[in-house]
Amino acid sequence: MTNSVNIYVFSGTGNTLIVANKISEIFNSNKYNSTVSKMESIDPKQIDLNSAIGIGFTTAFWNTFPFVRTWIDNLPDGNGTEVFLFTTMGDSSCGMIAHIAKILEKKNYKIIGAKGFIMPNNFLLVLKDKKNKERIEKTLLKVEEYVKGIINSNGYIRKTNFFSSIAFFFSSFVTTKLWNTKIAKRIMKFKLDKAKCIGCGMCAALCPMENIEIKNIPQFKDKCIFCLRCVSYCPKQALSNKILLKTYRAVNLKDMLWKN
Ligand SMILES: Cc1cc2nc3c(=O)[nH]c(=O)nc-3n(C[C@H](O)[C@H](O)[C@H](O)COP(=O)(O)O)c2cc1C
């Protein structure tokens, strides 16, 4: 493995960012030179193929956000570049990471690790802070094991199976085709409480898709991926959604606003 490791991460509410930073920290403390960059600020065609690459992203509907899939699809031919993958999920990704690994293998990347990590759920089943903290602590120990495996050239690589293949086929349909339908957009639409909104523009600054424009108050365009960053980090809790009972923040606002 080369001495330098560049990690590209997409994280809606901070869970995957915590894992990415932990991975980077472990590499750095083992005399590697590791960086973490936000996927949304990096053109995948421009990434450095002379370094080993880590790619991490949120699990969404047993898959990941369409933006992440497009980012991965737009990576150049890997020419044998080593890559490890990680996803974070609330419960299960049905083996999605194994299928993303296959996609990268077809692009001539050498897979040196592929694993999903259970983190607090940021959607529907948001638990109490204490439980979430316990879950993160437990998972970070597993992350440590995972990275040690990669460093020792025996990184865990999740394999595909019959059931994960069916789930991936089905979830790919949901996250590409159904996601763009009018009904899905209506379900995912955020409601703004104008009495609470102070027009601070934080939601626009946070949105990875540049989907929000401030004209006194936020105006939403048509590119929302439902990562929940805007609704979770609004300083005035002015945004809501019918199917979202509770919001979740894994890191503080300053860490979420971090730019590459
Ligand atoms: C739209 C959406 C769909 C999700 N789908 C799943 C899922 O299929 N399986 C699962 O275990 N967790 C699911 N989750 C929960 C997240 O994957 C999990 O909380 C993750 O750690 C959040 O990472 P992030 O904070 O880096 O965005 C979903 C979350 C969102 C917002």
3D architecture notes:
- The protein is of the alpha/beta class and 260 residues long.
- Helix 1 (15-29) runs parallel beside helix 4.
- It contains 9 helices and 9 strands.
- The longest helix has 23 residues, at 129-151.
- The chain folds into 2 domains: 4-171, Rossmann fold (3-Layer(aba) Sandwich); 182-257, Alpha-Beta Plaits (2-Layer Sandwich), CATH 3.30.70.20.
- The protein has helices spanning 15-29, 66-73, 96-106, 129-151, 162-176, 182-188, 202-206, 229-233, 253-257; strands at 4-10, 33-38, 52-58, 82-89, 110-118, 191-192, 212-215, 217-220, 239-240.
- The model has no long low-confidence stretch (mean pLDDT 95).
- Strands 2-1-3-4-5 form a 5-stranded parallel β-sheet, with helices on both faces. A two-stranded antiparallel sheet has the order 6-9.
- The two termini are 24 Å apart.
Strand-residue proportion: 15-25%
Helix content: 25-40%
The averaged pLDDT comes out at 95
Q: Could you say what the CATH architecture of the largest domain is?
A: 3-Layer(aba) Sandwich
Low-confidence stretches: none
The coarse overall form would be: globular
Biggest sheet: strand arrangement: 2-1-3-4-5
The H-level CATH homologous superfamily of the largest domain, spelled out, is Flavodoxin domain
Q: What is the CATH class designation of the largest domain?
A: Alpha Beta
Distance between the termini: 24 Å
**Sheet with most strands:** 5 strands, parallel
Q: What count of structural domains?
A: 2
N to C succession of SSEs:
EHEEHEHEHHHEHEEHEH
CATH topology of the largest domain: Rossmann fold
Work out the radius of gyration. 18 Å
Total of helices: 9
Question: Which ions, cofactors or small ligands are bound in this entry?
Answer: flavin mononucleotide
Question: Structural class of the secondary structure composition?
Answer: alpha/beta
Total strand segments: 9
